[in-house]
Amino acid sequence: MRGRTFFLLVQNTVQKEYRNKTLIFLFLFTLFILWMDQTFFDFIKDKLFQGQTFSLFNFKLDLFYYIISSWNFLMGALLGVSCLRSDVQEGVLEEILSLPLSRINYITSRLVGTWLIVMGYYILSLLLAFLVFGYKGKGGFDFAWPLFSSLIMSSIPILAVITLGALFSLFFSRVWALLITLLFSSFVSFSNEIFAGKYFEGLTQIKSLGQGIYAFLHTFFPHIGTFNTLSKELFGNHELTKNLSLELVHFGLTFSLLLFILLKRLRSMENYVDEG
Amino acid sequence: MEKSTDSTIIKATNLTKTFGGFKALSNFSLSLEKGSFFGLLGPNGAGKTTFVRCLLDLTVLDKGHILINGIPHHKPEARNHISYLPEKFSFYPNATVRETLQFFSVFKILNKKERTPEIEKAMEELSINDLARKKIKQLSKGQLQRVGLSQLILGKPKVLILDEPFGGLDPLLIKDLKDLLKKLNNEGTTIIINSHILSEVERLCDSLAIIDKGKLLALKKIQEIDQDLEDFFIQTINSNKEAHL
Questions:
Q1: Are B173 and B150 in contact (CB under 8 A)?
Q2: pLDDT grade, residue A207 (50/70/90)?
Q3: Domain count, chain A
Q4: Are residues A118 and A158 in contact, defined by beta-carbon separation less than 8 angstroms?
Q5: Chain A nearest C-alpha distance from B202 (Å)
Q6: Nearest residue on chain A to B77, judged by CA atoms?
Q7: Which residues on neighbouring strands pair with residue B216, listed in sequence order?
């Protein structure tokens, strides 16, 4: 029963966004980015490299990847804020929670469904980019493994941002939750730069209030900035500058903490209907 | 887990719930027999909805415990055979009626092959077959309530809980609802209605409880009340008020 209801809610999460036309809007936005990317580089080639024949595939893909990676961060926050909040706003949460399913089942299925939407969009965008830009095999760019591994790595901070968005959405309105999620994620990323390579030792090296706050964020929240850095290193086929195993352990612990806080918040809500 | 072997389907013991300084439930205890048609009466803010929400684990109790068919209420499996209709039923505005019922049917009907026939049957029962492809946001209040009732009866639940089900309904729908509830109760379904419309409770229920300020003031079978229900209700509430002065 648990598995069945979990998959039903994951499916329902995707269907919700499809029905809200969110996915259609994202698809149109992707086409726009692809067109701008293609047009920009074709213009550069025509104006600066007339008569020369070479492939701009790598440049186009690089630019597209960087734009989509940044956009996915925003999309993770946007959809994360919506995944639980929409149930509250539409007055559906009470009906769902009165069904025979646990709160943790509900939360995780919403988070996984949202994560699948973002990652699915990410993969489809890249496939579309390959088709539009036209891989002609010139330049010897070995795209398969770096792109694939970069994609997997970037799925981790996206899951963290989605979860933060979902948590803040249970405290604030959608707009405020989105702003706070983006700001908070940025502060966490910045703290990851300050305390790079450290895990809990950062807490013992506090010399000011600001440093204390950043140490707290770095220690107790998933390392969003670190995983984004690792993703870029993989895409560029560079050597990893962080200990991936330790980072994954830290992520497991801090993500579990986030889930626990989210569960406690859902449990403590006295009213599951948005009256604001 | 222990299943109840006696005739009690819901057993609530010493329930207490406070919101801020306000006591919504105060040492509230109640037992319901299987197959009963039970009315929970009380003025606004008496604690009726709080009791239902605690029963469904939508609100965390401060003290006390509830057993549903012998299963502690906070376990998801306790709600396996319960169907709930809140005062205002709603679902995703862009989902169709059929999609809405399909969603609920997964939780209520274990056998995949039975889901479609059960959905068709529920829609037929509430006369909403022609609304199957309409989106929830396109429905009128009455139509939406019919969809809510359709999801309520999916999977032949053992317990139905309805929170103020008659509010704002047209007479035709009220009649359909009453006929449906009587039919289900005759088939053995336990029904709990929260209401402050005494006339409807009197006609439908075989037992009732009166609650005020979170306390159980009276628990009786309808046939034991030898006066007009409205008089009995007012008398009970006023006696409680006088006791507090």
A1: no
A2: confident
A3: 1
A4: yes
A5: 27
A6: A100
A7: B211
**CATH, range B1-81+160-166+188-245:** 3.40.50.300
In this complex, the residue of B77, B82, B92 whose CB is nearest that of residue A92 is B92
- CA distance linking residue B43 with residue A232, whole number of Å: 63
Chain B contact present for A267, CB below 8 A: yes
Angle between helices A144-169 and A244-268 in degrees, nearest 10: 30
Q: What is the dihedral of CA B98, B104, B105, B108, to 10 degrees?
A: -160
For testing contact with chain A, the best of B49, B90, B98, B147 (most A CBs within 10 A): B90
Domain segments of chain B: what residues?
Answer: 1-81+160-166+188-245
In chain B, the residue whose alpha carbon lies closest to the alpha carbon of A9 is B103
* d(C-alpha A121, C-alpha A127), whole Å: 10
What's the rounded Cα separation, in Å, for the pair A10 and A110?
Answer: 6
Q: Would you say residue A264 lies in a domain? A: yes
| Host domain of residue A204 | 2-268
At residue A75 the predicted structure's pLDDT band, cuts being 50, 70 and 90, is confident
The residues, any chain, with a CB within 8 Å of residue B141's CB and separated by 6 or more, are B168
Q: Does B78 contact chain A (CB < 8 Å)?
A: yes
State the ipTM, two decimals.
0.87
- Which H or E element spans position A39? helix A22-48
pLDDT digits (tens, 9 = 90+) for A19-48: 777 777 777 887 888 778 777 777 777 777
Give the pairing of strands B82-85 and B159-163.
Answer: parallel
Check CB contact of A188 with chain B, cutoff 8 Å: no
Which of B58, B77, B104 minimises the CB distance to A97?
B58
User: Is residue A56 one of the residues assigned to a domain?
Assistant: yes
**Which of B59, B93, B107 is opposite residue A90, by nearest beta carbon?**
B93
Query: From the list B76, B90, B95, which residue is nearest A100 (CB)?
Result: B76
Enumerate the residues of chain B whose CB falls inside 8 A of the CB of residue A90. Answer: 90-93
Q: What angle, rounded to 10 degrees, do the helices at A103-133 and A22-48 form?
A: 30
- Asked, for residue A205, whether it belongs to a domain, the answer is yes
Contacts of B147 in chain A (CB under 8 A): none
In sequence order, the 6+-apart residues with CB closer than 8 A to the CB of B232 are B218, B225
